[in-house]
Protein 1
Amino acid sequence: MTHKNTKSFLRVVRSGACREQTFPSLNSVMSNFASHQFQMIAPEQLRAARGLLDWTRTELAKAANLSPETIKNIEHGTFRPSETTCDSLLHTFTRHNVEFFSLPFLNVRGVVLVTPKLPSDTEAKKS
């Protein structure tokens, strides 16, 4: 099998049958990511991120300098947030260690709570 630079191959085993699927390479994904003007936040990502911090809509609105109605409308999919609104939300969550991610070629998006790295045992013994 020949592999092209722009594609990578993955064998997926399901029900004992093996089939080949083609996915974009990491370089392709990163260049597409870099070409986007800003990261769009999906309604379910916003709800999940707020849930990770156990925040109400009002608490998020206050932290991001937005109205609770704006948060509700984004979460319900009533309208898509502007670039400025997305930036405000992303910066607010980033300050609280919540990061958004999207892997469009796998149809996956989500949020993670990034915990600070704890010093290893060797680093702790040095001090």
Protein 2
Amino acid sequence: MKCEFTAQTPINPTEDTDKVMKTLSNMFDYDEVVMAGDYISVNGGMDSLLKLKDALEVRRIRNTARKMLINGSYDGVIYFKLNKQAAFSGTVNFTEGDSPLGEIRVKIETDDVEGFIDWLATLQK
């Protein structure tokens, strides 16, 4: 299954760039980092999402994650947002609104949306 992801988050004037990088590192093992102005983006393949997959399992929120992923899927692309403050502490937390520090915006392109969602957030029983 083909899979490429990009995660992007703003760097606010009051934030330390190293801490923002730590936030992204807590959720993803990325292949590349791009710093552009007041944003940091990371990207990678399916293996880069193993931390996120494990965090969903540990927190036992795979069913909630499935709903968010399904709701955010359009034509082979999945969009969702993670809470930046929670990610800094190593906790995965999906968000639908905007937060004061901004959020981590994730875009996943895949040739098998359903198969990818089954892999990332296996249905809990």
Protein 3
Amino acid sequence: MEGLHRQASLARLIDPASIAVIGGREAERVIEQCRRLGFDGPIWPVNPKREALAGLACFQSVDDLPAPPRPASPSSER
């Protein structure tokens, strides 16, 4: 059973159903990269200070997302 659990966990990273991207400029780059790679699921940017990232409306908080993201990608400025 442990092997199946690992495969399921890895599958969420390799083929996510949705992605939450948390941050600012770096999060915008993650969104653009996801699009270039052909990701066709929902991408939910989270940023309480911005209205949009890469043309997508921002959520103010992770609590505001329509569903739990699989996975979330926090990003930060250097």
Protein 4
Amino acid sequence: MSTVKEQMLEIIGRQPDDSSYDEVLRELAFARMVQRGLDDADAKRVFSDESVRALSHRVLDPNGETHRNPWRLPRGDGH
């Protein structure tokens, strides 16, 4: 297992020489987000498809009241 510093240096080393500071930071942030997602999945800190679908039917307004999600489109594939 490599250290965090080694992982960051590897990501930075894969960037083109003309990369901007923001581009490098974006790549580092993306790699961190992916790793956090993988860590969450390994630790079973995930939501099932069914629970996400159930939640996607409703939205909370600024007052915390639940309403039907007006932007949800019906799926045509039977889900």
